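Q&A log
Question type: sequence-to-structure
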Amino acid sequence: MKKIITLVFMMACAAPAVALAAGPAKPLDRANIDMTDTASLQRGAEYFFQYCIGCHSIQYKRYNRMGNDLGLSEDQLRERFIHTRDAAGDQTGVGELIKIAMKPDDAESWFGQPAPDLSLTARLRGPDWIYTVLRSFYLDDSRPMGVNNAIFEAMSMPHVLWELQGWQANVGEEGHIKLEKVAEGKLTTEEYNEVVRDITNFLTYAADPVKVERHELGKWVLLFLAFFTFVAYLLKKEYWRDVH
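Response status: OK
Response body:
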């Protein structure tokens, strides 16, 4: 029994160290997203479908569900978001899952492996991770795509937002990463941060579309439980009044 207790204690003590070792070398920045901001979600969707959908699907979500949640009509979905076609050559329907046209074999040939689906990335990694990764690309001639990432080292993904952000370089000493902008993009740093925040907001929504509704419902559930506890207390006093 003592050996089991000792083993459990050692595993509990080691867990934080393992998590720390597996964490990013660079601290994550706060995304500060707001999933109730519909305008931000719409902008994030547009950026995602403009820069990301060529490689990354969100295949557990349907176009029409996204349209209903983000206040987009079917015509807007067809015009601005649906870029794929079916086997007959017709535009993908609004009720279909959001997939990509790129074939897995082509993706593996071009990037070394197929790009991951991003449906649940925000739940797996967290919004802060997405926000920081998209702001942490830097030039690296040793990589096939010419860039590396301070958070996700040796990432196969190119910096698809380079026109907006510009280019960064690692000016830190060996073993330490310190990013410094060496070429300007179309946007200022603050403007680019807002673009990344909108994309992060959209991917967080895609990973958990009912999060806001669930949190709102949770408030009412807690209020009900508080009221029920009060009523139960009054009933208890009434039942036990003669006993006490």
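Response note: The chain has two domains: 35-209, 216-244.
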